[in-house]
Amino acid sequence: MENNKISVGLDVGTTKIVAMIGRKNEYGKAEILGIGRAKSLGVHRGVVNNITQTIQSIQQAVQEAEAESGQKIEEVTVGIAGQHIRSLQHSDYITRANSELVIDEEDIDRLINQVHKLVMLPGEEIIHVLPQEYKIDGQGEIKEPIGMYGGRLEANFHVVVGQVSSIRNIGRCVKSSGLELEGITLEPLASANAVLSQEEKEAGVALIDIGGGTTDVAVFKDGIIRHTAVIPFGGNVITEDIKEGCSIIEKQAELLKIKFGSAWPGENKDNEIVSIPGLRGREPKEITLKNLSKIIHARVVEIIEQVYVEIKNYGHEEQKKKLIAGIVLTGGGAQLKHLKQLVEYITGMDTRIGFPNEHLAGDSDEEIASPLYATAVGLVMDGLKRQERKRIEKAEAEEIIEELEAPPLKIEEEPIVPPRKERRSFLDKLTERVKDFLDNAE
Predict the structure, then answer these.
(1) What residues contact residue 22 under an 8 Å CB cut-off, 6+ apart?
(2) How far apart are CA 237 and CA 157, in angstroms?
(3) Residue 249 burial (CB count, 10 A)
(4) Going by C-beta distance under 8 Å and a sequence separation of 6 or more, which residues neighbour residue 268?
(5) What does the buried/exposed string (b/e) look like for 252-274 if buried means 16 or more CB atoms within 10 Å of the residue's CB?
(6) pLDDT tens figures, 227-274
(7) 442 band by pLDDT with thresholds 50, 70 and 90
(8) How far is residue 321's CA from residue 137's CA, in Å, rounded to a whole number?
(9) pLDDT tens across 284-313, in order?
(10) Confidence band (pLDDT; 50, 70, 90) for 5?
């Protein structure tokens, strides 16, 4: 790969598949070099249900991105979402053999690995284990336990669970498209990285990513992810309702929704009418915008109410857990007119539309900074971070080897302390497992 600088995000969505190529510019921002998109045909509600079609769409998106950027794509960071994702809170502890020793990485790894032994439903696998706060010998609210002393180390964990088969199918699609899997990321986390500022994550915020097949929710507070959920409805069910309610074909319903749709029925006058050409030789259909808005409104209210249930599940109503920054809407569905007002009306929380320009280079294309591409931008950033980590690890490993190979000059000096390695995220381990599985399956 060209000086290991470019990173590729692959967002396998229900309506579209996006391949986005980016690299870090000298200011540490992500600069997008190329983007390719293809209609997604083999994905339903975030889950691959037709491998052949998905492979074709991935290849099409990748070729388009390659043509636009002049780069060759070999590895991708892919996002997983889908209705099979759920999350739970769990607390666990370990007892340390020697409380006189400082708590280190290994203790935390031991604790995290213990959480991985949780018994899940058949066919489910833990995707993420995210530590929230630690407790040492009963003293709570510790953010970073490394370097402290104590015998009993416990923590609350946010555990994200998904279906093994769905994750493997995505891996298989990527592999069969002639690409290497560089990493796997939970889509709500990727979108959150792209559109939220650090201040919002500290203050408390709920990110709602309204896609075609699913709506992803990620709740942050005190800079830590607290809750994730995937709701199996998105923009497609709205289109479906318009199609049935107005007896028109899907393509027309989608266009109507984008051009004239609004989430707030009071906006339209009774006499505003759109005429839609009938199918071959039939009369055109007349649809009032008021009716259109009523259909959209009913479905959007249902989606927002489910999202609100998730926000309450996290505990937003407790004073300490209040989400001060409110709600950020992103994804293609966030472009629906008057959606912000409706969300504020239903939840009573401050709301803004999230554009993924938080970490993009200043001269980025208008189009890329659309909520539509939030997940793709987040995946690119994730890939860049992953490469940075690999580079640091490689450099450190080389340093240690050099030091070991160097002729011993003064033995009595202090011993080499290996540098503190960054904790590998469970996703790296998951990626490796998926890779191993795919290699053995072939």
Answers:
(1) 6, 7, 8, 9, 30, 31, 32, 33, 377, 380, 381, 383, 384
(2) 33
(3) 11
(4) 262, 288, 289, 290, 292, 293
(5) bbbbbbeebbbbbbeebeeeeeb
(6) 999 999 999 999 999 999 999 999 999 999 999 999 998 766 778 899
(7) low
(8) 24
(9) 889 999 999 999 999 999 999 999 999 998
(10) confident
Give the strand pairing for 16-24 and 7-12.
antiparallel
Distance CA 332, CA 316 (A): 26
Residues belonging to the chain: 442
Residue 222 contacts residue 203 (beta carbons within 8 Å): no
Tokens 């995946």 sit on residue: 379
Angle ∠(228,229,235) on CA atoms, nearest 5: 130
Cα separation, 128 vs 426, in Å, equals 6
User: Residue 303 in 3-state DSSP?
Assistant: helix
pTM of the predicted protein model? 0.87
Residue 425 binned pLDDT confidence (cut-offs 50, 70, 90): low
Q: Which residues, at least 6 apart from 433, have a Cβ–Cβ distance to it below 8 Å? A: none
Q: Which fold has domain 235-299?
A: Nucleotidyltransferase; domain 5 (3.30.420)
First to last CA, the chain: 25
| One-letter identity of residue 301 | V
The dihedral through the CA atoms of 77, 81, 82, 88 has a sign that is positive
Concatenate the DSSP letters of all residues of 63-127 into one string: HHHHHHH-----EEEEEE-STT-EEEEEEEEEE-S-TTSBP-HHHHHHHHHHHTTPPPPTTEEEE
pLDDT(324) > 80: yes
Q: What residues have CB less than 8 Å from 379, skipping those under 6 apart?
A: 9, 10, 11, 20, 77, 78, 79, 185, 190
| Alpha-carbon gap, residue 246 to 276, rounded angstroms | 10
In the structure encoding, which two tokens stand for residue 28, read together? 């540490």
Give me the residue label for tokens 């971070």.
385
Query: Count H helices, E strands: the chain?
Result: 11, 18
Residues contacting 117, CB < 8 A, separation 6+: none
CA distance linking residue 97 with residue 322, whole number of Å: 39
Give the other-Cβ count within 10 Å of 197's Cβ: 14
3-class secondary structure, 11: strand
